[in-house]
Amino acid sequence: MPKKVLIITNVPAPYRVDFFYYLQTQIPQYEFHILYSSVSDRIGRQWHTDQDKIIQSHFLKSRVFTIHNRYDDKQIIFPYGVAKILAQLQPDVVVGSEYNPTILQAVHWCKKNKIPYISWSDGTRYSERNINTLQKLFRKYVVKRAKAFIGSSTRTVENQQYLGASPDKCFLSLLTVDIQQYLLRREADEPNHYNLLYVGSLIGRKGLDLLLDSLALTDERISLTIVGEGGEKEGLTQQMERLGLQDRVIFKGFLEGEALKKSYENADVFVLPTREDCFGLVILEAMCASMPVIVSEYADGAVDLVTDGENGYIVDPNNSEEMAKAIDTIFEQTEQLNAMRQASYKRAQGFAFEHVAEGFIAAIDSVWNG
């Protein structure tokens, strides 16, 4: 009989569901069950998840509280009945995401019942630079009791070791999407329309205001397409008009599926000017579509996705001149732009589920075999 592995996470985000479905259908040595803290985090994300892929999944009853911040809103999920459902499922191994109230209860249950617990995180030293004393205590409690650690990026593994995890117990399983949905190999050619593309929420944390300041300093032939919705749209529109960019910026709203893939196909260069992101999955989606990328150094997944000068540039979005120079440079050198397209496409292949699952499974193997 395969050993039962219970993965605990917050909500059924599509990219997580796709990965879990891969584990459930392609890794026969373990029986994977998924426990979600909530059906939704109620943050207003326009996610549409393939319901056929939500198998062997369980949902806790919970209350969700929102904390409003300057650049983004945070949700805290308080679940009910964690110990009860763990007792019903009787897992052989538990893998828990982050350090929230659900996880604290799960870790306590695992310790009491002598079930190995694996701590899984996306957090980095930068993303967690402002956590409070209580949050630090949560992390200390979890790290002390975990038998292994899974990090979603190189920066996450560094943070786990900073928190006290032994390096020999840390495993890298890069955050990813189903790359098959986005793969598009583009032949070498001239830039289509000197078009930059941004995909994501229109919130302060994403740094679109910084991008508009930089765009105003670039070649006037370069335009920007913005795909997404959010509370900052009105302010960004006013900024666009103030900078005289009305003819160079297009707001497309929220897109998904074929419409989103078409946006990647029609653009030349992808840009993510974020003030903070633990990873930045849209970078990977763009790379799958053979796009060079200009990425903020505050997207902590950038070091795993981008080699500066090879498939894009990593920049400080707070430095308007630096970001503007990167944008101009990438369009000025057509031969290099085409080389970057090929480099992005090739690098994206390493994020296929069969590759990123290796570290995930190695972590489980380590605690079970140990």
Structure description:
38% of the residues lie in helices and 21% in strands. The protein has 370 residues and is α/β, with parallel strands linked by helices. It has a 7-stranded parallel sheet, sandwiched between helices. α7 links the parallel β11 and β12. α6 (208-215) packs across α11 (320-332) and α9 crosses α12 (334-348). It is globular, with a radius of gyration of 21 Å. The model has no long low-confidence stretch (mean pLDDT 92).
- Count of DSSP strands: 15
Structural class: alpha/beta
- Low-pLDDT sequence parts: none
- Percentage of β-strand residues: 15-25%
Cα(first) to Cα(last) distance is 19 Å
Write down the Rg: 21 Å
Global morphology: globular
How many helices? 13
Order of helices and strands: EHEEEEHEHEHEHEEHEHEHEHEHEHHH
Biggest sheet character: 7 strands, parallel
Summed over residues and divided by their number, the pLDDT gives a mean of 92
Measured as a percent range, the helix fraction is 25-40%
Strand order of the largest sheet: 3-2-1-6-7-8-9
Secondary structure blueprint with pairings:
Blueprint: E1 3-9, H1 14-26, E2 30-36, E3 57-59, E4 61-68, E5 73-80, H2 82-89, E6 93-97, H3 101-113, E7 117-121, H4 133-145, E8 148-151, H5 154-162, E9 170-172, E10 195-199, H6 208-215, E11 223-227, H7 233-242, E12 249-253, H8 257-266, E13 269-272, H9 281-288, E14 293-296, H10 302-305, E15 312-315, H11 320-332, H12 334-348, H13 353-369
Parallel strand pairs: 1-2, 1-6, 2-3, 6-7, 7-8, 8-9, 10-11, 10-13, 11-12, 13-14, 14-15
Antiparallel strand pairs: 4-5
Helix pairs in contact: 3-4, 6-11, 9-12
